[in-house]
């Protein structure tokens, strides 16, 4: 696999000590972002009512699920792991012999391969879908900050190289925009039935 982003990874990855390790692990997890997810659902409910909100939630689940499953194809993990068996996998930085000895690794509780970042894909899909639904400038700044923090945390934790993050963001963009347009069509049908 390609190595052109190794130097950028090593420049971005550093030992920030146990406190920063804990912060980056929290940023990379789910619990810290529960208030953001709750706000997105509240906004959808307040603006569309519970029936149309359920349509949005269904599309949100589809976007997150598809993003994760598609990334699994490239990492040979998940339900479609055998779909493209000839695709060359790429080790996570923590397991890559070319950078492992120079990288700061906070923990080793991850799979071997990180070819396409599912974290990047899912947060970017969520960002597109929610930002196009909410359409407030302050929210675009908030969700953009969340995307940057989560994506960077994956580099800090030595889980992904920068190109893995970029490819994950590309998958998330394609899925997020596709599901948004699906939701708009689905939402129009629900809205008509409610009148």
Please compute the radius of gyration using only Cα atoms: 18 Å
| Form type | globular
* Largest β-sheet summary: none
- Poorly predicted regions: none
Strand content: under 5%
What letter string, H or E per element, gives the SSE order? Answer: HHHHHH
Helicity range: 55-70%
Report the strand count. Answer: 0
Helix/strand structural class: mainly alpha
Q: How many domains make up the coordinates? A: 1
Distance between the termini: 55 Å
Total helical elements: 6
Characterise the protein shown here.
This protein has one domain. The protein contains 6 helices and no strands. Helix 3 crosses helix 4. The longest helix has 42 residues.
Offer a few descriptive terms.
mainly alpha, 195 residues, globular, single chain, 6 helices
SSE inventory with pairings:
Elements: H1 6-12, H2 17-28, H3 34-75, H4 118-134, H5 137-156, H6 162-194
Helix pairs in contact: 2-5, 3-4, 3-6, 4-5, 4-6
């Amino acid at each position: 696999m390609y190595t052109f982003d190794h130097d950028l990874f090593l420049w971005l990855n550093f030992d920030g000590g146990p406190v920063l390790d804990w912060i980056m692990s929290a940023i990379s997890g789910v619990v810290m972002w529960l208030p953001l997810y709750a706000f997105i659902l509240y906004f959808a409910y307040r603006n569309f009512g519970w029936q149309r909100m359920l349509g949005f939630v269904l599309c949100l689940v589809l976007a997150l699920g598809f993003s994760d499953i598609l990334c699994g194809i490239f990492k040979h993990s998940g339900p479609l792991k055998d779909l493209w068996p000839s695709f060359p996998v790429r080790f996570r930085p923590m397991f890559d012999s070319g950078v492992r000895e120079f990288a700061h690794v906070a923990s080793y509780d991850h799979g071997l391969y990180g070819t396409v970042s599912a974290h990047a894909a899912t947060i970017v899909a969520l960002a597109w879908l929610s930002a196009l639904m909410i359409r407030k400038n302050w929210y675009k700044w908030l969700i953009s900050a969340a995307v940057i923090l989560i994506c960077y945390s994956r580099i800090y934790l030595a889980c992904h190289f920068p190109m893995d993050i970029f490819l994950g963001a590309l998958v998330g963009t394609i899925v997020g925009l596709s599901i948004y347009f699906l939701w708009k069509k689905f939402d129009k049908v629900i809205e008509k039935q409610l009148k």
